[in-house]
Queue: 3 jobs
Job 1
Amino acid sequence: MTVEGSIRLLGDSEAALGDEIDNCRTLNETDIIEKFDKLVDAGVINYDYTYATESRKIGGLDFEFRISNVLKSKPKDPTIPHITKNGTVALKQRPGSDINTHGSEIGQLGESHFLAFNGFSCYRPHYLLLTLDGNRRQWEPLCIDDFRAVHTFLGCGGDNLVFFNGGVEAGCSRLHKHLQAIPKHSFNGNPWRNVDENADAIPFAYFEQKLKINSTPEATLEVYRAGLDFVERSLGYKTTEQNRAPPHNVIMDGMRMLVIPRRAAGNGVVGANAAGMLGMIWTQSEETMQLWLDAGPHNVLEQGGLPGLI
């Protein structure tokens, strides 16, 4: 991935790296991985290099279970401070935010967002695209600033999947408004496999639209608004005057967008975020994976979404 253009890179004092980074320097994929590994080694971010994957075909769908010890230490309560690998308490997050990005920030995405590594990464690397304003909330619908940030990020190169967990029912565990991005490593490089090859078996309603080549942020926003309208009609209620949208997931790259109405995070025992709805399940142990298998992962997805195509 090449990070350039309107991404303003952060230097040493901001990014907590050992070697100075010129703000005008380009970071290629090798540099990104090197930076990621340094931060893991320093205990700033958490990543399990020994993660395991299990692939299953169940109910006509492909599932990839990514088992990572990192998820055992991921705090569910935003009032619990992040403890680094060396036992120290991480510095306080940005005002209004419940996501600690101190030391893991990569650069600024335009005027409204910044790019950081996920403190509990399931991929190498695993990104967060966060609003500079820590008081923005995850239940808000996406807006033009969000898509400008996504457009900047995707325009930097690399083959990444961007997703949004809009609300607790959609799988979010933090309230500061953010999107996530992961490399397309799952399903042999095609995270859309179930949509492309197993669509008839997908047990929940979703909105899908292909994006035009070199689509602008404004055009992408219009696609999202059509998807959000689908969510509102499916769930039977609209975005409120307080700017609280119905729970939904957004998954996109430079070629397409998927929007999924959500009625629950899961079945009360296990739950799925946006990636999980595509069959990419992140679990903390084989025991947790077994809970998924016992419940039937296709059943969990049906309970999390709305059954059947509308």
Job 2
Amino acid sequence: MAKAKKSREGAVMVLGGGIAGVQAALDLTDLGYYVYLVEKSPAIGGVMAQLDKTFPTNDCSL
């Protein structure tokens, strides 16, 4: 089923570039908002981005 794109006015700021912040930014973009994603660290992804170092063989129960 195709989503109807509606033009929205304004912009939204999402604080935090973890997995929830990135998903929120994507969802808001799909709704037609211009999104500013702000993250304090140099990379986005939060803890999920570090799991490849913790479980390098992808052998975890997540």
Job 3
Amino acid sequence: MDTQLKNRKIVLGVTGGIAAYKACTLCRLLIKGGADVYVCMTEAATKLVGKSTFEALSGHPVSIDIFEDSKSISHISLATNADMVLIAPATANTIAKIAAGLADNMLTAVTLAATCPIVVAPAMNSNMFNNQATQDNLKTLLRRGIYVITPASGELACGTFGPGRMKEPEELYEDVCSIFANRIESKPGLIENNQDRLPAPQSPLELTQTRLLPKSFGVGFNVLITAGPTEEAIDPVRYISNNSSGKMGFYMAEAASALGADVTLIAGPVNLPTPKGVRRIDVKSAVQMLHAVEDFVTKTDIMVGTAAVADFRVENVSPIKIKKTDDTDSITLKLVKNPDILATVGKREVNRPFTVGFAAETNNGEEHAKEKLERKNLDLIVLNDVSRQDIGFNSDNNEVTVFDKDGKVAHFDKQSKANIAACLMELIFKAAKKN
């Protein structure tokens, strides 16, 4: 029995999405954790799961119609006595009704009357989830202090792959426990905002509050992250480098720390502030970065290589500035291969961490990413298209696809790098726990 759920009264709202059957498992888990669960269904949900199923699981009558007989519990009674209203699955239709303040069925009436935390777990087709109307409705819920549990990406009932899949019951159960653990007496309040849109979260730390990533997700993990470019000297004033800003790696480090992990960030030459709670080691060259990684890797559980490490360095660095003369039309620099940091870690036979790489590609991205995954012996690889100006180097946004050795794991559509980082670290922690 979970102490956070003991004697808690939870209204479990079930709407007419194909994921309604998962609510049966969620109901059972909540009761097993010590909660007293009252189920409230929409009429559409009863077409997918029988009312009697939830009555048998919860031990209480199931509420559907506001005008049912007097033996049923009223919507006001349900709302005022509840410690939480949890709607899982929440269809686009129900989300729109809640955003508009409608109370045309028992569930929406309970939600409108509730003064306790309200949690919404969307479940729908990707196009419906990404539709601007749905996104605006979700932002409205967030502005009002309602928790929105971001759906997972995966294969959907319609056969497509993308965001919109409701989290698994076990994950939702963890999220519910996290809310009670962190805000036992708090009630949702209106987030004052005169803008038409909810501002994007500024950091993964804020995302742990708005996207409901449990703050204990990474507890117990030692995470090592590389970020930024490297500089390979030509002479004392010139060097070879690339356009990596380091933003993605710094957001990954902040996300991992916000989720409870012990984080070491090895950063190339970038002008970015150190994320809160993160141990930072600054380096310049690929060789220096490798040495820093080797200093920490034996004490590392997860290694995430976001750094854009130079593939080659100058073999003979000039000790003095190379001068241009009138008779010098060209110079030749002999380049030698740099060590492959990720491959060095991925192929370790002893004390090998769960290893994640990034593939910044301009063409044939999936092919190159999968080849790197195999060649470097990685557990996961994250592909992003740096040829696109809107998500490439120095952009504040990204769009990525994650692969493991069995194929595609997840795809995250274009959104802020802070958002992507939080989603990726959640995925990485889950995968590492299973490994």
